[in-house]
Write a sequence for this structure.
């Protein structure tokens, strides 16, 4: 049993959380919730959740759930994306920094592979890595933490990451918003 929980505990916990979260919001009128807290406070809540959600791969789902709830409740999806994307980038930078500082912990036997990755990522044409960064951050629900650490280890300059990841976060928040608005009628 302990082996099973160690292997599948996170998935079970996430599943239980999503079921409980769905049960709570199936019985709560989201529009009245946002009206009660006010639109300004809704953006502040989104910023706080973005800061917390951006700092851990385990809290990313709670951020996107919060975005969906706030958008269904009446917040402007584009404004919400523009407001919270910089705060998600702050969380991404933390992992970029850890990757940069943690580079020295990589065993020497992996340096040859690492130099190959560096040459691919730091190619003169920054458009190719930027395209993949955008695809990853804008079209997948995966947290950008691992990506940021890998880019830092590969010495990819953060100044090239910022605009691409900003657009990626905005894109994915818009996707979540559209899905939330279009599917909310199924639940409410």
């Amino acid at each position: 049993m302990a082996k099973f929980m160690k292997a599948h505990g996170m998935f079970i916990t996430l599943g239980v959380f999503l079921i409980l979260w769905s049960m709570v919001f199936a019985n709560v009128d989201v529009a009245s919730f946002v009206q009660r807290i006010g639109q300004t406070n809704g953006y502040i809540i989104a910023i706080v959740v973005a800061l917390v959600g951006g700092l851990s791969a385990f809290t990313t789902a709670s951020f996107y759930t919060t975005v969906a709830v706030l958008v269904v409740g009446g917040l402007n999806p584009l404004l919400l994306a523009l407001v919270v994307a910089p705060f998600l980038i702050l969380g991404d930078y933390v992992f970029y920094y850890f990757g940069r500082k943690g580079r020295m912990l990589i065993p020497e036997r992996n340096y040859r592979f690492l130099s190959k990755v560096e040459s691919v990522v730091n190619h003169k044409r920054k458009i190719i890595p930027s395209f993949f960064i955008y695809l990853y951050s804008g079209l997948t629900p995966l947290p950008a933490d691992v990506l940021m650490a890998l880019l830092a280890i590969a010495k990819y300059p953060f100044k090239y990451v910022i605009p691409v990841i900003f657009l990626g976060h905005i894109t994915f928040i818009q996707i979540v918003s559209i899905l939330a608005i279009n599917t909310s009628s199924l639940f409410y």
